[in-house]
Amino acid sequence: MTNPHVKPEYPHSELTAKIIAAAQEVHRTLGPGFEEKFYQRALSKELRAAGQEHDREVWITVYYKGEKLGRKRVDFVVGPVMIETKAKAALEDVDYIQTLSYLKASGFEVALLINFGGPKLEVKRLINTQKP
Q1: CA 7-11-15 angle, 5° bins
Q2: For the chain, what percentages of helix, strand and coil (3-state, to nearest 5) are there?
Q3: What is the pTM of this model?
Q4: Is residue 102 predicted with pLDDT exceeding 60?
Q5: Which of 12, 17, 33, 102 has CB atoms 3.0–4.6 Å from 6's, for a disulfide?
Q6: How many beta carbons lie within 10 A of that of residue 9, not counting itself?
Q7: Cα 109 to Cα 53: distance, rounded to the nearest angstrom
């Protein structure tokens, strides 16, 4: 049985597929309507149950043309993947723009933007195509 979320054209696809599966379980169990922190706690539990090491509320360094500007906290880091979570009715353009900006400035290769707030889980994979 193949995982439909594993796509060879995406970097770290096996890992992001595991993260997406964990997020789907959280959404299936909790459903929409909770504050973001509850989804984050539940996702952390699901990742642990899947044996996936991760860190929550991680400070990442933001660079501009190779110089450190400061730090920004992101929701999760799972190996080479940065995760931003939301709990809103639907993702908006500003959510994609913000996550992509964090991804580019931090130097991570891949980010997942996950929204638990709607009737259906929303997941967007973002790929960093440039160096910070």
Answers
A1: 75
A2: 35, 30, 35
A3: 0.88
A4: yes
A5: 17
A6: 6
A7: 18
Q: State pLDDT tens for residues 13-44.
A: 899 999 999 999 999 999 999 999 999 999 99
Cα separation, 94 vs 81, whole angstroms:
20
Could you give phi then psi for residue 29, rounded to 5 degrees?
A: -80, -50
pLDDT tens digits for 42-95?
A: 999 999 999 999 999 999 888 888 899 999 999 999 999 999 999 999 999 999
The order of strands in the sheet holding 81-86 is 55-64, 67-78, 81-86, 110-115, 122-127
Token readout for 80 is: 């080479």
Query: Tokens standing for 30?
Result: 């909790």
Residue ranges of domains in the chain: 13-127
The count of other CB atoms within 10 Å of the CB of residue 53 is 9
Task: Return the SS3 of 105.
Answer: helix
Looking at residue 80, what is its pLDDT? 93
Q: Are 19 and 52 in contact (CB under 8 A)?
A: yes
pLDDT at 1: 46
